[in-house]
Design a protein that fits this description.
By secondary structure, this protein is α/β, with parallel strands linked by helices. It folds into two domains: 2-54, Urease, subunit C, domain 1 (Roll); 58-282, Alpha-Beta Barrel (TIM Barrel), CATH 3.20.20.140. It is built from ten helices and 13 strands. The strands form three sheets. Strands 1, 2, 3, 4 and 5 form a five-stranded mixed sheet that branches. α7 runs parallel beside α8. It is globular and about 70 Å long. The N and C termini lie far apart (43 Å).
């Protein structure tokens, strides 16, 4: 007997193909789609989806709920919009790894305007320990990306200065360990200190480590570079990807205001990079 049978819905499968009417069958961990008559099938639960769309869960690639979800694990605001997976640690703001509880809590306080506070105590320091906090406790799947701010805090500290060669090698080892513990890549928020103190070359080195372990570079770009031209922040992001031979995801990728540049500038930058062999994606928030 099936666990769940969803009938009469319009299936949008995410492939880009037109929608079609069919039934969705769930049996254990297996999901399948069946066209035609399903009246002979028995299920523990049947949902009549007439007039509704049935589709895979949505993935939120820009989530600031990595801490607050620990206090509200049912996560109704996202679940009720169909979100089933979230990427946390974006904008250079992840909450591991840290050497001490004091540094972790200082960083939580610093960026709490965007990420809020977790329930106390903050009883993790490593990426693996933070990921364990989500396992079998929250309603959605959590993908974690390593922010470059904690990487810099670990090796360089909180101050605005270049990393020494020894500190850069230490940061690369932090990225490597985080990737081995389950991170999906490295993120930056280059308007937010101390991650914003990183140079282009430093970030290319770190992105290269992530790329060699299957990760990508996810970036809120450096707005101060607009003094060099409208597209300069995004061009730096692509330079980082090229330098590290790393896929790039551009977040907040949009015109700042109506009439400021053209959407063709933004599309053209990405399309040209793809034509040159880069792996580049973006979101428009």
């Amino acid at each position: 007997m099936l666990n769940l049978l969803i009938t009469n819905g319009l299936i949008i499968d995410g492939s880009g193909s037109p929608g079609f009417f069919a039934s969705v069958l769930v049996e254990g961990d297996k999901v399948s789609v069946l066209r035609g008559d399903v009246s002979h099938l028995e299920a523990e639960r049947v949902i009549d989806a007439t007039g509704m769309v049935v589709c895979p869960g949505f993935i939120d690639l820009h989530s600031h709920t990595g801490l607050t979800i620990l206090g509200e694990p049912h996560h109704d605001p996202k679940v009720r919009q169909g979100v089933t997976t979230e990427l946390v640690g974006i904008d250079g703001m992840s909450h591991s790894p840290f050497k001490t509880r004091e540094e972790l809590e200082r960083y939580i306080w610093q960026d709490s305007g965007l990420n809020g506070y977790p329930p106390l105590p903050t009883d993790w320091l490593t990426v693996a320990e933070q990921l364990d906090k989500y396992d079998n406790t929250v309603a959605v799947n959590i993908a974690y990306i390593l922010g470059n701010s904690p990487v810099r805090i670990w090796s360089v500290g909180w101050n605005d200065r270049p990393a020494s060669p020894e500190e850069l090698e230490d940061m690369k080892s932090v990225v490597r360990e985080a990737m081995e513990e389950g991170a999906w890549g490295i993120s930056t928020g280059l308007d937010y200190p101390p991650g914003s103190y990183a140079s282009t070359s430093e970030l290319a080195e770190l992105a290269g480590v992530a790329a060699r372990l299957g990760g990508h570079y996810h970036t809120h770009t450096r707005a101060s570079l607009k003094s060099n031209g409208l597209m300069a922040p995004w061009e730096e992001a692509l330079d980082i990807g090229r330098g590290g031979n790393c896929p790039v995801h551009l977040t907040h990728y949009r015109q700042g205001a109506a009439g400021v540049g053209s959407h063709l500038d933004y599309l053209g930058l990405v399309e040209n990079a793809i034509d040159d062999g880069m792996d580049v994606t973006f979101d428009c928030y």
